[in-house]
Amino acid sequence: MAKLKVEGESKEEKFKRIASLRTQRILNDLRLLANCSDKRIYSYNEKDASKIFGTIEKELKRVKSLFSSPKNIFKL
Known about the structure:
Blueprint: H1 11-35, H2 46-68
């Protein structure tokens, strides 16, 4: 996907545009992952599912913390 630069776009507008596209992509990918739950087509066990969702939850928690915690940057 080509990066589209919008001239005169504020940081807030850019954030909203990019975050909306990326969020939609994540939601679409989660819907695709849900297709893997069909036991008529795929074979998996609870350990496999737990590993997938544990990894997703861990990364979601990490990213969520980036949005909520202040950045501790050392300055003199």
